[in-house]
Amino acid sequence: MSGSDFSNIKAYIAQFHPEEDPFFQRMEEYAREHSVPIMEKNGLQVMLHYFRILQPKKVLEIGTAIGYSALKMLEACPESHIVTIERDLNRVAEANQFIMEKNQNITILAGDALEISEEAAKHGPYDILFIDAAKGQYQKFFELYSPYVEKGGFIFSDNVLFKGLVASRDQGLNKRIEKMIAKIQSYNEWLHSHPSYDTILLPVGDGLAVSRKKE
């Protein structure tokens, strides 16, 4: 399948996405204007479909940004309690503004996710863990926070295809990108061989890994 064919498929699927309300449209525009990375629509819709099926009571997110995905998760599962971690204090302030405007019960933990796991543990255990932060640290995040996920619970990892580069053989990429790709490839391989999880990698959005903790 050519790149243009795949783009056509994504565009075709996008027409079936539910119409966004003005609040989330404004968040998306804010993200574009301020170069804030938020989850791609196709991947987000797939993940939210899991949420609607699973109806988790507690969710832990690593990587709040402006609170877009946390608010979308809560929209899909209004009875959930979302705990989300963000180290950028400017992003924490932006997220708090949007969350207060929506008047939602979301707990933001400000700090480096590699350093505040004990604080996050106080709010657990969790039915779902969503990893969407520094891609080079995914395995560390998984190892640090997966013990707080209930048996039978799920871990979602976003950006595991990294614009398709993890599956390409492109030459001439800069060293930083090559290093990032190598880390994501290593994470995907490690994740699929993990004895305590069943994992599927879905080619939606920027790549979504869905891992279920064995009973």
UniProtKB/TrEMBL annotation:
<keyword id="KW-0819">tRNA processing</keyword>
<keyword id="KW-0489">Methyltransferase</keyword>
<dbReference type="InterPro" id="IPR050362">
    <property type="entry name" value="Cation-dep_OMT"/>
</dbReference>
<feature type="binding site">
    <location>
        <position position="132"/>
    </location>
    <ligand>
        <name>S-adenosyl-L-methionine</name>
    </ligand>
</feature>
<keyword id="KW-0949">S-adenosyl-L-methionine</keyword>
<dbReference type="GO" id="GO:0000287">
    <property type="term" value="F:magnesium ion binding"/>
</dbReference>
<comment type="similarity">
    <text>Belongs to the class I-like SAM-binding methyltransferase superfamily. Cation-dependent O-methyltransferase family.</text>
</comment>
<comment type="function">
    <text>Catalyzes the methylation of 5-hydroxyuridine (ho5U) to form 5-methoxyuridine (mo5U) at position 34 in tRNAs.</text>
</comment>
<protein>
    <recommendedName>
        <fullName>tRNA 5-hydroxyuridine methyltransferase</fullName>
        <ecNumber>2.1.1.-</ecNumber>
    </recommendedName>
</protein>
<comment type="subunit">
    <text>Homodimer.</text>
</comment>
<dbReference type="GO" id="GO:0008757">
    <property type="term" value="F:S-adenosylmethionine-dependent methyltransferase activity"/>
</dbReference>
<keyword id="KW-0808">Transferase</keyword>
<dbReference type="Pfam" id="PF01596">
    <property type="entry name" value="Methyltransf_3"/>
</dbReference>
<dbReference type="InterPro" id="IPR043675">
    <property type="entry name" value="TrmR_methyltr"/>
</dbReference>
<dbReference type="GO" id="GO:0016300">
    <property type="term" value="F:tRNA (uridine) methyltransferase activity"/>
</dbReference>
<feature type="binding site">
    <location>
        <begin position="112"/>
        <end position="113"/>
    </location>
    <ligand>
        <name>S-adenosyl-L-methionine</name>
    </ligand>
</feature>
<keyword id="KW-0460">Magnesium</keyword>
<dbReference type="InterPro" id="IPR029063">
    <property type="entry name" value="SAM-dependent_MTases_sf"/>
</dbReference>
<feature type="binding site">
    <location>
        <position position="39"/>
    </location>
    <ligand>
        <name>S-adenosyl-L-methionine</name>
    </ligand>
</feature>
<feature type="binding site">
    <location>
        <position position="132"/>
    </location>
    <ligand>
        <name>Mg(2+)</name>
    </ligand>
</feature>
<keyword id="KW-0479">Metal-binding</keyword>
<dbReference type="InterPro" id="IPR002935">
    <property type="entry name" value="SAM_O-MeTrfase"/>
</dbReference>
<feature type="binding site">
    <location>
        <position position="159"/>
    </location>
    <ligand>
        <name>Mg(2+)</name>
    </ligand>
</feature>
<dbReference type="GO" id="GO:0008171">
    <property type="term" value="F:O-methyltransferase activity"/>
</dbReference>
<feature type="binding site">
    <location>
        <position position="69"/>
    </location>
    <ligand>
        <name>S-adenosyl-L-methionine</name>
    </ligand>
</feature>
<dbReference type="GO" id="GO:0030488">
    <property type="term" value="P:tRNA methylation"/>
</dbReference>
<feature type="binding site">
    <location>
        <position position="158"/>
    </location>
    <ligand>
        <name>Mg(2+)</name>
    </ligand>
</feature>
<feature type="binding site">
    <location>
        <position position="86"/>
    </location>
    <ligand>
        <name>S-adenosyl-L-methionine</name>
    </ligand>
</feature>
